[in-house]
Amino acid sequence: MYLYGASGHAKVILEILEEQGTKVAGLFDDNPAVHSLWEYPVNRYTSDWNSKITGMLIALGNNHIRRKIAEQLDVPFVKGIHPKAILSGRAKVGNGTVVMGGVTINADTVIGRHCIINTNASVDHDCMIEDYVHISPNVALCGGISVGEGTHIGAGAVIKPGILVGKWATIGAGTVVIRNVPDHAVIVGNPGSTMTRK
Ligand SMILES: CC(=O)SCCNC(=O)CCNC(=O)[C@H](O)C(C)(C)COP(=O)(O)OP(=O)(O)OC[C@H]1O[C@@H](n2cnc3c(N)ncnc32)[C@H](O)[C@@H]1OP(=O)(O)O
């Protein structure tokens, strides 16, 4: 089992895998100055590794970069689920996705591939979360919400039931979303509205 990315996000994923009892052989990072993370070796990735890798998670928080790396690598992706996350037996989680400690995912919710469901987030019943989404710490998604590919929901945001959030949108930290969000929008505040700069 290997991770791609040797940042702070990788530290959290490493500890999930340690808790799961999954043996991690090492990490990859594009920065040639990085040779280890804790006791784990960090290598540069080349296609020679493809046949040696039986499980991989991409430990990169940026949704665009995570998609780029996922599309480049020809390896099997696995999921990482913290033992102290609460997952309904009727929820589905795609490969490449990580679910951090304290998360709750309720019935009939579907989470796509290469998502991050971060510490203490709550994703309630009947939600549909597409690939490469990051749901940050302490986010509350009520029931029946859809979140499009690549969207980042900032820490502590709250989204009202049944809301549709578009693709590659950004919801600022602490935002309260009460209306549907178009693709690529940046929404902040309470009630949430399009971000403007002075
Ligand atoms: C484990 C982990 O760490 S997971 C990582 C979780 N990360 C997050 O939750 C970060 C979420 N990111 C944010 O909230 C950011 O502020 C963003 C993406 C919404 C905006 O970032 P930037 O583009 O750098 O915007 P910037 O900081 O220049 O702010 C622009 C304006 O919007 C306002 N603004 C920015 N973010 C917010 C917010 N979350 N809520 C309300 N207003 C905001 C600013 O006050 C500023 O207003 P002003 O021009 O009147 O002073």
Automatic annotation (TrEMBL):
Name the InterPro entries for this protein: AcTrfase_PglD-like, Hexapep, Hexapep_transf_CS, PglD_N, Trans_hexapeptide_repeat, Trimer_LpxA-like_sf
* The keyword Magnesium appears for this protein: no
Keyword DNA damage annotated: no
Residues that bind substrate, according to the entry?
A: S7, G8, H9, G61
The record, for CDD domains, names: LbH_AT_putative
Q: Where does the entry annotate site (Increases basicity of active site His)?
A: D126
Going by the UniProt record, its keywords in alphabetical order are: Acyltransferase, Repeat, Transferase
Native species: Chitinophaga silvisoli
Recorded family membership: Belongs to the transferase hexapeptide repeat family.
GO MF terms here are: acyltransferase activity
Gene3D superfamilies for the chain: 3.40.50.20, Hexapeptide repeat proteins
Active site: residue positions: H125 (proton acceptor)
What is this protein called in UniProt? Acetyltransferase
Q: Where is the PglD N-terminal domain?
A: 2-73
Q: Name one Pfam family in it.
A: Hexapep
Annotated residues that bind acetyl-CoA are located at H134
